Amino acid sequence: MAFVLDMLTMALTTIAGVSERRIDRLLNPDISQGLPPFLASYPGLESGFMMAQITAAALVAESRTLCTPASVQSIPTDGNQEDYVPMGMAAAFKCRRVLANARMVVATELLAAAQGLEFLKPLSPGRGVDRLYRRVRKVVPALDGDRPLSPDIQKISELIQEEGLE
Length: 166
Hints:
CATH superfamily: Fumarase/aspartase (Central domain)
CATH architecture: Up-down Bundle
Largest sheet: none
Order of helices and strands: HHHHH
CATH class: Mainly Alpha
Strand content: under 5%
Number of helices: 5
Distance between the termini: 28 Å
């Protein structure tokens, strides 16, 4: 079980890492194809999604440190009666933490992507993206000026956990 959980932890970390890089592509004016820096209406006066991306990067960094396999950490115990301990619980605890981190990073990406769509209006996305955009907007309004984004990220993270957002 520990081997499987270790691999799942690595896979979730990879998903979070890819998601964070897509956030960067939305926020970085050098590669965002015309979106404003940090998806702020008034870059320089507003932070937009800058701190959210920094948080996503920190969550990915934490997840990467948790990718050291628990399955190889066995230590003999109980006077060597327990000569090999599978470390399943340690792997499960790490995997649970990384799953939460990945969910927060993906939630941040969904919010940033929805905000990016705000700047592209009157253009409209395809049906699938539009459906997801509308689902996100039912829970969190568009960013209009600076506000703490952590409650918004938490709401979308919970939405992901509850519904999966296919």
